Amino acid sequence: MAGTAERGVRHERQRGGRGGGHRRAGRRHRPAPHRLGGDGRRTRPTLADAGAGISLHANGIRALDVLGVGRALRAAARPQYTGGTRTPAGTWLARMDGRELERKLGTAIVGIPRAELHRLLREALPPGCLVIGSEVTAVDRSDPDRPRVAAGDRVLEADLVVAADGVRSRLRRALFPGHPGPVHSGSTVLRAITERPVELRTDFEVTWGRGAEFGHITFADGRAEWHAVLNAPPGRRHPDALAAMRRRFAGWHDPIPALLDATRPEAVLHHDIHELVTPLPSFTDGRIVLLGDAAHAMTPNLGQGACQALEDAATLAAALATGPTVASALARYDAERRPRSQSVARAARQAGRMGQQLAHPLGIALRNAALRLAPSGATVRAILRHADWTPQPLG
Hints:
The protein has 395 residues and is of the alpha+beta class. It is 32% helix and 22% strand. It has a 7-stranded mixed β-sheet with strand order 5-4-13-14-15-12-16. Strands 2-6-3 form a 3-stranded antiparallel β-sheet. Strands 8-9-10 form a 3-stranded antiparallel β-sheet, with no helix packed on it. Strand 13 (204-209) and strand 14 (212-218) form a beta hairpin. The longest helix is centred in the last third of the chain and has 29 residues, at 326-354.
């Protein structure tokens, strides 16, 4: 379970070289970036590190290596070595061998609080380039080579605008007015980080019931993030979300009750899950490029949302650092990222249908039997299918 790594409206003034604003892109295009943080609707005096925890696969970690944040991430995150998939009664359906993943990919999956990952990314930025509390009101494209970003009382001229403004991207809507936009996936997610460390026997678990999933990942300080994904219509909310989760998962195996007991009611976040079912025809338009959920919002069932956003950033940075022109760099970015990210999004949707969203008893029984009969190492091979990706160097 993972969400994406970027939130809010983040546009970048640059001479090419910063994918999502993470680090210098290289020698050929010297960047002069401005990252505008906020929610795109109102100004804020401070950044809001919304979110609970995040798990990153090898592809996301490799992208952070290229962007200069990999070492700091490894120091702050916790490798997820043990765990797998269970039934509500606690029976194991499949095991995950994190050390085997580490042998094959050079790293296990890691878990980290989202706020901590945001801090690491911000610390890697040059001083003064992150602007917060400024609402982006318009992008003027009258000059195709020099878009102008209106942000509060200032106008920024740019060689390139990177739009990472999330699943409900306003810039995507402006660039592709005929696109239907995001649709509700049929699921909703509740999640939280425990208030205190929890004694857990495994690093990472997912439990599948009828139209429901409960999972956890662990952090370096002993706390854990848990998530509950449920089949539900959009907009349904609970007066006391934590109490509702205790009722919904009553009778499910340990450590689910302990994770809920270690959580403050006000810490529970609740979001409906939306995705871009209709693929975009392009991730670029002139000197504007879409990145992350703005380009390929997907369901969290593969834990690849943030990793794909980080792949976007690393690929864009490398293309800008090595390409002869911004136009050629953007053409390369679109050619490399659109097919892969849209393929991962389709796979995530299918994984959700066969996993958390499955509600028919016969279908659940057949799926569980297939998982039990699967050969040893099947889980690792399934993860490798999407996680074994290597970025290009920046120069």
